[in-house]
Write a structure and sequence with these properties.
This protein is mainly beta and 171 residues long. It has 1 helix and 14 strands.
Amino acid sequence: MLVNKSGSLIVNGSTSVNQFDCIVTNYCKPDTIVFVANQSNNFIKLSGDILIPIQSFDCHNKMMTAELRKTLKAKEYPYLRIHFVSLDKYPSLNSQKEHIKGVVIIELAKVRKQFDINFDFYKDANQTIHMLGSRDVNFSNFNITPPTKLGGMIKTKDQLGIEFHLQLEEI
């Protein structure tokens, strides 16, 4: 399946003072995700990656955006990579939203971690396939120390929520 340009990725987090969300809209690099069915069971092997430029994150606050990019070491490691590994079953790909468990590997700052993830699949009236996924991760999963400000008075919590919405076309 072809990943088209109109996807998005959102990272949600919080500090000791407030919450923040940083977004990448219009995934700019078309890629493919290959679905390979296993004849003996419903398990589906996936192959394909999406690369999200860290510089593309927008936190709706110039200082917060700069701090996130610095914390994620954007100059050394310019991409967040999501590698798709598997699904528990092949999606029906109809207008009803279908929940399917899967596995991805997230690579950030040269650290790769495997995560179970909850996906939602559905097909819209234009025959575009929507693949939504969400997962909480921690800065510490990737050996990254959450940022602090004002001598440690404002601390970013370790946990981040990652949500992505890919739009796919069958090829």
